[in-house]
């Protein structure tokens, strides 16, 4: 797998995790909600950073 494929896979997985957490927020135990939400927030923020970096590093 090359670098672009890994970045795209990470972006898709992080957004899927955030979407699943939003959809299932009522069924998650209260002790698990906050750590998972923070993990999803960090992953989505890092995904945006990778997206911006890939646009700036590889101009078309």
TrEMBL record:
Q: Which UniProt keywords apply?
A: Membrane, Transmembrane, Transmembrane helix
Q: Where are the transmembrane segments?
A: 6-23, 35-56
The name this protein goes by in its record? Signal transduction histidine kinase
């Amino acid at each position: 797998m090359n670098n672009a494929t890994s970045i795209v896979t990470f972006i898709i997985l992080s957004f899927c995790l955030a979407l699943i957490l939003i959809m299932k927020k009522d069924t998650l135990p209260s002790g698990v909600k906050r750590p998972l939400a923070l993990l999803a927030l960090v992953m989505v923020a890092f995904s945006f950073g990778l997206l911006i970096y890939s646009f700036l590093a590889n101009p078309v």
